[in-house]
Design a protein that fits this description.
Strand order of the largest sheet: 8-7-9-14-15
Shape: globular
Bound molecules: 2-amino-4-trifluoromethylsulfanyl-butyric acid, cobalt (II) ion
Helix content: 25-40%
Number of domains: 1
Distance between the termini: 35 Å
Order of helices and strands: HHEEEEEHHEEEEEEEEEE
CATH superfamily: Creatinase/methionine aminopeptidase superfamily
Largest sheet: 5 strands, antiparallel
Number of helices: 4
């Protein structure tokens, strides 16, 4: 069942989103060569506390951290570690889901360490564009898979792969609610979108083949061909007009 959020729930999710956005801004200056992903996670935990944000990751199926930090060929669910030290040229995807007063926001953003190639810059930009193309389809009256198809088209027309094994999701009081939002598929299928639905849309894309595997820590998702991966995520509200992105600023 896809829940329709009332005004009060939407206000809380919106607050969760804007506070989470502040946390992502705060991370930026600490992404430097030599820092461990565990140190970044510890920093994030402190930033969440300052804002009364509750991590939805910590404790989820025994997960012990407040964020997922996925470097280079790690697609998603990278486990923060004292042994993973950032170096110049790394592509680092940070994913954080929180609740504020019981309502969730889920967001992921890429950071680059030092200098990256033009090819990497384009790859990052296409993932962000794919998210935007998907969000544009998050409109009342559209079908769910209009979002999926728009994402796939943007990614594949640029020659990259769309990961099949993980998907976006509805979000609200729970981090994961119905529906599952695939990043590929034919348009015009699935439920009709209605105002008050809230979705976490999150393309996961690969520079090479789209096949991925889970490493023996049970969490880390890597590309099978070791190619670079990107992940970016926003929490979006469907309205009777334009979609509202709860994890971005309206005025930049
Ligand atoms: N934020 C992730 C998502 O988009 C979930 C991470 S769950 C964790 O669904 F436990 F791995 F943190
Ligand atoms: Co998510």
């Amino acid at each position: 069942m896809i829940t329709i959020k009332n005004k009060d729930s939407i206000e809380k999710m919106s607050r969760a989103g804007s506070l989470l956005l502040e946390v992502f801004d705060a991370i930026k200056p600490i992404i430097k060569p030599g820092i461990s992903t565990e140190a970044i996670d510890t920093f994030i935990e402190d930033e969440l506390k300052k804002r009364d944000l509750v991590s939805k990751c910590k404790g989820y199926h025994g997960y012990r951290h407040v964020s997922c930090i996925s470097v280079n060929d790690v697609v998603v669910h990278g486990v923060p570690s004292p042994n993973t030290l950032l170096k110049n040229g790394d592509l680092v995807k940070v994913d954080i889901c929180v609740s504020w007063n019981g309502y969730c926001a889920d967001m992921a953003r890429p950071y680059v360490v030092g200098v990256v190639s033009d090819a990497t810059k384009k790859f990052i930009a296409v993932a962000q564009q794919a998210l935007d193309r998907g969000i544009e389809k998050a409109r009342a009256g559209n079908h769910l898979t209009d979002i999926s198809a728009a994402i796939q088209k943007e990614v594949e027309s640029n020659g990259y792969g769309v990961v099949r094994d993980f998907a976006g999701h509805g979000i609200g009081k729970q981090m994961h609610e119905d529906p599952e939002i695939l990043n590929y598929g034919k348009p015009g299928k699935g439920p009709i979108l209605r105002p008050g639905m809230t979705f976490a849309i999150e393309p996961m894309i690969t520079f090479g083949k789209y096949d991925v595997f889970i490493t023996d820590d049970g969490w880390t998702v890597k590309t099978s061909d070791k190619s670079l991966a990107m992940h970016v995520e926003d929490t979006v509200l469907i309205t009777d007009s334009d979609p509202v992105i709860l994890t971005r600023r309206t005025i930049e």
